Model the fold of this input.
Amino acid sequence: MQNQEGHLVTLQVRSVLDKVLMVFSCVCCLAACSPGEQTFIRVASGPAGGYWYPLGAKQAEIFQREIPGISASSGPGGGVGNLRDVANGEAEVGYTYAYSAHSAYVGEPPFTENHTNLRHFASLYPAAYHVAVPESSAIETYYDLAGRNLSPGKLTDSGYTVFQVVMNKYGLPLESISANGGTIHHVSYTDSVALMKDGHIDAHFAMSGLPQAFFLDLEFRPGIRFLPMENNVLAEIIAENPGYISISISNDHYQSVESPITTLGSMTTLVVNQNMPDDLVYSMAKALWDSHGELVAVADAWEQARLDQALIGAAIPVHPGALKYYQEHGVTVPSY
Done:
């Protein structure tokens, strides 16, 4: 009797174990048969008040809608910080400028190491370095900026890098500004506009698309002028970094500009990490360029973004996935 009871207990235990194993097998089967894990794409855009912030949000929406298995988001950033985030795997796509991408790739200031895992994804539209002063200001050249109250952007903004480079070329290192009684304000574009309207800054600096909404705002009140850059300074800077170009700010951009203003420029670009799968980056490129009209509706500057110029000004290697897409569409591939 005891043996029969023991046998019965053993059968019951085995029955329970069999059920557990069956449930476990079903779970494993479901996991194996279910779609692959969702892929996340984080777009590092720009500060509030500029083009990048709303464009990045729209791109995240497009990627999630057009690419199966993708969950995408967008957040604020800056051209320098975005490069570090993409290189460190904290973002998959980053807005920046070609000159900053080159600096990050080779490890020159403001970068302390070379980020050779960065890859070019797309050239979008040209940007110009704006240096705006109040219309009534006595400031006529960069040399007049010594000892003034200046707003060149946040430390992680690409425009701040340009500010440092340009001011050094004019013999006005940053420490000389405060030494001569001036102040450098590291605030957002929106705050810079407010400071200029209130008369608290003498010049507002920004590398941005043409035209830029916040400069149009300042053009209305209090009225502004843009400082030109001398050709010899331009040539020297461009020779040191292939991501820079010469560009003009004209009456086509701002009504108050009577004669074209020559200044430093660069292509607005998107970068990705080299470790992103080729097929994913290919799909991202397709989704981006197929949605051109949606992005134009977000920012007029996107009208200047053209598929046939998607590799113009690329100062770092192109991601293979993007390269495949561009080659299929006859885009001229530059040598790097």
Q: What stands out?
A: The longest strand covers residues 118-134. Confidence is low (pLDDT under 50) at residues 1-35. The chain has twelve helices and ten strands. The radius of gyration is 26 Å.
